Amino acid sequence: MTSFSLHGVGVSSGIAIGQAHLISNALLEVVHYQLPNHLISDEIKRFENAVQTVKADLEEINGSLRKNAPAELSAFIGTHLMILADKSLSEVPKTIIQNEKCNAEWAIKLQMDDIVEQFEQIEDEYLRERKQDVVQVVERVIKVLLGHPSQLATEQQLSALSEERKLILVAHDISPADAIQFKQHEFAAFITDVGGVTSHTAILARSLNIPSIVALQKARDLIHDGELIIVDGKQGVVIVNPDKNILTEYKLRQEQWELEQQKLQRIKSAKAVTLDGASIELFANIEVPEDVVAARAAGATGIGLYRTEFLFMNRREMPDEEEQFVAYKAVAEAMKGDVVVIRTLDLGADKQMNPDTVVTCANPALGLRAIRFCLAEPQIFHTQLRALLRASHFGNIKILVPMLSTLSELRQTKLLLERAKLSLRKQGIPFNETIALGGMIEIPAAAINAEAFAHELDFLSIGTNDLIQYTLAIDRTDDAVAHLYNPLHPSVLKLIAMTIKAGDKLGKSVSVCGEMAGDAKLTKLLIGMGLRQLSMHPSHILSVKQQILHSQLSALSANSRKILNLTDIEKIEPQVAKLNRIADLRMHPRP
Ligand code: PEP
Ligand code: MG
Asked: What angle, rounded to 10 degrees, do the helices at 321-334 and 378-391 form?
């Protein structure tokens, strides 16, 4: 058997060694045939039954979701149900069967091609990728029409298989509904031909915590069922039929990785304190209330960023005040008095309510998003502010405003907050009168003017994802320029340093809640620069904490100052690596 390797985009780290389990691509099996007039109505019935079966399947999966299943899964199944219910998929194919006198599989495939073509015209990469959801739903319908059993093998077959050997799923694409079954059967990894870093597959992979690689192009064609494969999620490499030496090497690496993960569990309840006694707060970023479970399990001592816009997505109606209140209160109560920073609506750019509401503009990331949208829609904002204030009575809630660029936006926000407070007071509804108000520093204009913002705010939170995007003029969702997206660019570091300095000067706390906070390779630099609060995806908390426990703050501060004086990324990168090594050597001295 020849050995070869494939390269894609690693979206979830770790190493898996196992046997390939190929998932069929029903779309390739669709044929076209004509029907005589007297069979048309039966064919339409057959189509309707298939749609009903898929609907029932999806609802069953949704209903059987375990309580601790990643919340994204339920949202994605909801999206698939919505797509299935849309007339363009549930009704139009019937007209096609009628007019073209063709089989149901062909009719829905024709309709899908049409919809996909429309999606391809969309400029926004995130939305463009949503066409995969349509394809996945259509695939389900076609499989039922073709009489295929469910995409994955039966429960018993899989349990038997996964007990004996590790299975790695190899697919053209994997739908969220199928992904749920991964969790139950403990697949070792999954790899797909398509999908970008922001695809649902990638988002799910991260939340399932198994190694995965997307965008492998031809994995499904080149790999055969049962072949032995190695998946290195960190490097984005798949090795098919590895020879004995490679296999031994990767088994070793895998053992190391697993050992590291186990070791990390030991520090779960340890306080995040440096060797010289500085305490660092490690908070979690969450998208939906259910994420609090993962945040707590990872030892987060607060929620540093609750992205409320997820409550507004995949639906046509805005959530009303009561629905929002229930969600915010649930998080506040679950955190039992620990800090919960709730960010006001950050809709816009790659985060839209649903495709119908997309406003096409040339540069959505520079458009009417976040606080700009809220100020332009004061009624929507008022509803959210009232819900937030009401929930503040039940826990330690702080409000965070995204995308501030001018002081006038902040002042308008404060006026609207006062108006919301007044309306509650009049109704005698309790809330925290002194609720803290913070601002996200994620636009260079705000970082440069951070001192002025710090004067008028209770705390600052640096959104490095957008700060990097806007400082370097790099669309954070565009693969083509992803190689230029570098958190260590000297200008990015300087803007972060300016924000920290402004907060220190005015005695206001400063945190980082962008992805930089969860990158363990940057922890020592960030705390060396003076940060004492980091908020990240729960799965990153332990590796960041480990860095903190190994840090000598005094040494880090001096070295970080030197790094800040550098003007060239090529010099900064090795210095940051050195910063990490110095502390590592202190922990593991050479014999
Ligand atoms: C950021 O921009 O760094 C951030 C935390 O917000 P989001 O990723 O939601 O834009
Ligand atoms: Mg942001």
From this structure: 40
